[in-house]
Amino acid sequence: MSEFLLAAGGTGGHMVPAHAVARELERRGHHVTLVTDRRGAKIPGLFTGNNRHIIEAASIGSNPLKWPGALWKIQAGRRQAGAIIRAVQPAAVVGFGGYPVLPAMAAALRAKLPTLICEQNAVLGRVNRLIARKVDMLAASFPDTERVPPMKAVVVTGNPVRANVAALSDRPFPDINEFCPIRLLVLGGSLGASVLSDVVPRGLALLPQALKERLQVLQQVREADFRGVCQAYEDAGIPAEVSTYVEDVPGALARTHLFIGRSGASTVSELTAAGRPAILVPLPIATDDHQAANTRELVQAGGAVMIRQPAFTPEGLARQVEIMLERPDTIINAAARARSVGRPDATARVADLAERLAGLSPPNQEYS
Fold it and tell me: Signal peptide: which range, if any (predicted)?
């Protein structure tokens, strides 16, 4: 058994992959400790117990007046992470992006420990860019990840997803024919997206009656949009379950024929692992436009359509949904193309790299 230290920032996009890899390392008999920030500690169902530590972390933004405070927090976090490293004595340190990774990796590098960083998006994140040249290895989720500097080693592993999502890679696409219900899943990220609440119900209402009658919609919305979305579906005569929180996303994904939503890294990785076609609307304010970059491989494969938010209208959505759902073979083919670029074994691949850095597996293990 070996000790591993994982570091992840306080959003689901960083914490869920870290949790998936932690569970895999524990399954292999290792012990895992997490360092995160206060936001990460609040995410339910992840890293409960004594193996989770909160450290100071901060972003160095564009306001110079805030730099001294941010630097103080980063230095404090480095000292905290250093104390944890001395207590745990990890064989390797793995970072998953987010602010706590910077002080944790600084402490790991100072201790001369093997280091691995994981990038979920198709554009290397700010924190990972700061430390990429110094760490031993980068695990990339996408081929041709942008803004990667020259570094020691880059391996395309895919983005680790939840085990119950990865399991969908072995399950067939839900039955679909000219008469059966068509199930749509609409998600807007962790807090929903008002543009989806506005456009999707109105767009689906424009579909031909014969197609509209077959729809079954599950849509996540913000609390402020809940009543309006419910009313819009009722007025359109479309059966819809509207919720501010979808608790069982893997279960919903298993039943879904078509996904509509944002294109965060975890969303795209889960869609490709499960083999679910999608209409994706990238968040326009995402740093470095990374959500649009995340769609590139999937769109090129024919498993999704990407619509920029300014062009995301009810009429345009209705046209695209009709094209994808009019014939069963169209959506079935798109599902197969989505699955063709999936990497459902990403969790195992990242765990393999961590073990390799710790000297526990052959050094010549390669991934494409």
Answer: none
Is there a single domain that holds both residue 179 and residue 322?
A: yes
For 180, the token pair is 């059966």
Query: Coil, strand, or helix at residue 207?
Result: coil
- The verdict on 50 and 81 lying in the same domain is yes
Q: Which domain holds residue 293?
A: 166-340
Could you read off the pLDDT of 280-333 as tens digits, one per residue?
999 999 999 999 999 999 999 999 999 999 999 999 999 999 999 999 999 999
363 in any annotated domain? no
Could you list the residues known to form a binding site, using ranges. 11-13, 121, 162, 190, 291
- Annotated binding residues for UDP-N-acetyl-alpha-D-glucosamine: 11-13, 121, 162, 190, 291
pTM of the model as a whole: 0.93
Query: Per the structure block, which two tokens stand in for 124?
Result: 């290397």
What pairs with residue 230 in β-bridges? none
| Vertex 11 angle, CA 9 and 16, to 5° | 90
